[in-house]
Amino acid sequence: MKSIFKSVTLAASAAALSLGTLASAQAVELEFYFPVAVGGKAAQTIEELTNTYMEQHPDVEIDAIYAGSYQDTVSKALTAARGGNPPQLSVILSVDMFTLIEEDVIVAFDDIANSAEDKEWLNSFYPAFMENSQTGGKTYGIPFQRSTPVLYWNKEAFAEAGLDPEKAPANWDEMVEFGQKLVKKDENGNVTQWGVRIPSSGFPYWLFQGLTTQNGVILANSDGNQTNFDDPKVVEALQYLVDLSTKHEVMAPGIIEWGSTPKAFFEGNTAMMWTSTGNLTNVRDNAPFDFGVAMLPANERRGAPTGGGNFYIFKDSTDEQKEASVDFVKWITAPKQAAKWSMATGYVAPSPAAWETDEMKAYVADFPQALVAREQLEHAVAELSTYQNQRITRIFNDALHAAITGEQSPEEALKDAQAQADRILADYR
Predict the structure, then answer these.
(1) Within 13 Å, how many C-alpha atoms sit on residue 322's CB side?
(2) Quick one: average pLDDT of 135-152?
(3) Which CATH homologous superfamily contains domain 2-147+308-381?
(4) What 3-state class would DSSP assign to 94?
(5) pLDDT at 356 (0 to 100)
(6) Is 97:77 a contact under the CB 8 Å cutoff?
(7) High-pLDDT (> 90) share of the chain, %
(8) Positive/negative CA dihedral, 346, 5, 35, 121
(9) Within 201-318, where are the H helices?
(10) How do residues 255-313 score in pLDDT, each as one tens digit?
(11) 94, 132 Cβ separation under 8 angstroms
(12) Res. 13: pLDDT tops 60
């Protein structure tokens, strides 16, 4: 689906029409790819924000192309760039930074935004988000549609199970203990309510990275050329995930679908779920019960990966288009606009200043669950990102699936994944 955001119509006098025609002829035109298929109110809000920007900047016209999922968006952007017709800017997954650099299709923001004020802006975002936005001393992505996984729980189910409805599990042992009390079965022994649900489809590495971080291990280095998939602590984390189903019986066996997890939570099929803070607005609007939001449970430490999308500026555009793109990104990530985006979608406002706006303060006073993801940033790490990222994550996801379905032991699956990753990444060291 394609939507062109029109600039404001000037007053219908002859002089104004003449000026309007001249302005339109000289307007800087930007093509903007946006991953609309991320759920929530993203499309509506991005359209409102973009229209507002164009009303305030009649010399810029933005053609926003709804590009589908994140995977669709990066694929379409790269195809367009290879064909010599790239967008000027796009929101693409932060973990695709190395791919975009290797394809030589993006430019660093520092190369365009290099004034003292610009440098202050580049330093205004949460450091945890910038880990997936910078490499080699340069900033290639600006955090916008960013998130972390968090734990949601059904307070009514907790109370029914004799648990404190205001207390989420603080660590791995408690998640098992709470989960065992929360499992419900019918008279035939069939489970009607599971204790916890951790999705393992789509991008299972992301939620699993919560477990590895909590177990004190990082999956890849910051240069994007070395993984640690077969580290004993990664094996231990995967064994824990498998044990939730096979040993402790608090989670459904087999592959658990990402997309159906919120619905399962709403319908009482699970009392706890791990999913993105990007689902926060969805849960608030649709959960038929009182719910809580908490940081992911700890083991050796607290921890979770960041996630979501960054703004990127494409190389094959004019200087005027690059400057207009930076100006638009600066405007839409400014505190008031970032606050509006966060409140509408549940994504984490990417700078501390956004949380200090009057609008955001009123929002979190009414809905304190929104603070959890921000507070978890203190413990967050970069999402798994490497060169040849899609190949590497596919290898890792396949290893996770092999262990979850019992095809291989966690140790065997991760050893194989590391060997494959080494063969691919050796050329980048």
Answers:
(1) 17
(2) 95
(3) Periplasmic binding protein-like II (3.40.190.10)
(4) helix
(5) 97
(6) no
(7) 85
(8) negative
(9) 204-214, 232-246, 261-266, 280-286
(10) 999 999 999 999 999 999 999 998 998 999 999 999 999 999 999 999 999 999 999 99
(11) yes
(12) no
Which amino acid type is present at position 315?
K
Can you tell me the distance from the alpha carbon of 227 to that of 218, in angstroms, rounded to the nearest whole number?
8
Checking if the pLDDT of 8 tops 70, the result is no
Residue 372, helix vs strand vs coil = helix
Whether the model clears a pTM of 0.85, i.e. scores above it, the answer is yes
Portions of the chain given CATH number 3.40.190.10: 2-147+308-381, 149-305+388-428
Can you tell me the distance from the alpha carbon of 37 to that of 39, in angstroms, rounded to the nearest whole number?
Answer: 6
Provide the pairing of β-strand 380-381 with 304-305.
Answer: parallel
Q: Please report which helix (H) or strand (E) contains residue 389, including its range.
A: helix 389-404
**Are residues 344 and 40 in contact, defined by beta-carbon separation less than 8 angstroms?**
yes
> What is each CA distance from 127 to 124, 243, 358, in whole angstroms?
9, 34, 23
Could you tell me the two tokens for 104? 């030589």
Higher pLDDT, residue 10 or 201? 201
Reading the block at residue 7, the tokens are 């600039």
